[in-house]
């Protein structure tokens, strides 16, 4: 990967997650931590991110994080999404979180006799013409760049429903199994989703193990299943299993 491509990937990752540590970015891009530090300093000087101790923060440049991330780790996300869709039986209800992996789950639900509830506007676009699916859209404030609905109305809508499955996204999973997120405005919605579901399934590719985030979404005991990849951090997977979470490798 050329330096320019690598730096663009760093900026893209920060736009999606809000923040990134040197170790996480180095593992994600397969380069040394020294290389990442040099890239972060250069990107900071160019005004494309804000350098902080241990990593960097995203700069709001008015771009569309959802569009940026949709093609990143596409094959990995699709394997995870396909495995998630296989858990669902016809006649059941599914709650889909924001994000591109949840969108890919929706793509694997086409033609199924299901009820799908979501705050993900990309899922709405994907399923709106599928007459086999009963589609329920939560209310709320539109976050255009993230293609999501958030706020009091979204949380209140979730208090009025109950579903069989929740497929949840994350910015990262801590080594102790805690699920974190960097987009703080989304966290109350995620917590309300967890309360509304019988079974909570976390969808997280290997780059999220261990991951980062400024706000706690839930403890590992609140999860039923985690679907990830064989490359996900082994120690974190052990912590999840010891907490009673089923860890599925896609």
From TrEMBL:
PROSITE patterns: HTH_DEOR_1, HTH_DEOR_2. SUPFAM superfamilies: NagB/RpiA/CoA transferase-like (SSF100950), Winged helix' DNA-binding domain (SSF46785). The keyword Transcription regulation applies. InterPro entries: Carb_Metab_HTH_regulators, DeoR-like_C, DeoR_HTH, NagB/RpiA_transferase-like, Tscrpt_reg_HTH_DeoR_CS, WH-like_DNA-bd_sf, WH_DNA-bd_sf. The keyword Transcription applies. Residues 3-58 form the HTH deoR-type domain. GO terms for molecular function: DNA binding; DNA-binding transcription factor activity. Keywords: DNA-binding, Repressor, Transcription, Transcription regulation. SMART domains: DeoRC (SM01134), HTH_DEOR (SM00420). It comes from the Bacteria. Repressor of the lactose catabolism operon. Galactose-6-phosphate is the inducer. PANTHER family: GLYCEROL-3-PHOSPHATE REGULON REPRESSOR (PTHR30363:SF4), HTH-TYPE TRANSCRIPTIONAL REGULATOR SRLR-RELATED (PTHR30363). This is Lactose phosphotransferase system repressor. The lineage of its organism: Bacteria, Bacillati, Actinomycetota, Actinomycetes, Propionibacteriales.
């Amino acid at each position: 990967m050329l330096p320019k491509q690598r730096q663009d990937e760093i900026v893209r990752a920060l736009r999606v997650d809000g923040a990134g540590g040197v170790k996480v970015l180095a593992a994600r891009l397969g380069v040394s931590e020294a290389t990442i530090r040099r890239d972060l300093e250069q990107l900071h000087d160019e005004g494309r991110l804000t350098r902080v101790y241990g990593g960097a923060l995203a700069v709001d440049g008015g771009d569309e994080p959802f569009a940026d991330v949709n093609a990143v780790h596409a094959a990995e996300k699709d394997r995870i999404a396909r495995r998630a869709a296989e858990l669902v039986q016809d006649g059941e209800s599914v709650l889909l979180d924001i994000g591109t992996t949840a969108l890919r789950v929706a793509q694997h639900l086409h033609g199924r006799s299901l009820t799908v509830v979501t705050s993900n506007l990309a899922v709405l676009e994907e399923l709106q013409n599928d007459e086999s699916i009963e589609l329920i859209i939560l209310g709320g404030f539109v976050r255009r760049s993230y293609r999501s609905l958030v706020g009091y109305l979204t949380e209140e809508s979730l208090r009025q429903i109950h579903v069989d499955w929740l497929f949840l996204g994350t910015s990262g999973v801590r080594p102790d199994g805690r699920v974190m997120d960097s987009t703080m405005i989304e966290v109350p919605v995620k917590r309300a989703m967890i309360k509304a579901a019988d079974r909570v399934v976390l969808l997280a590719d290997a780059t999220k193990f261990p991951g980062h985030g400024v706000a706690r979404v839930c403890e590992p005991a609140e999860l039923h299943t985690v679907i990830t990849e064989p490359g996900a951090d082994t120690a974190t997977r052990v912590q999840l299993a010891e907490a009673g979470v089923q860890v599925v490798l896609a």
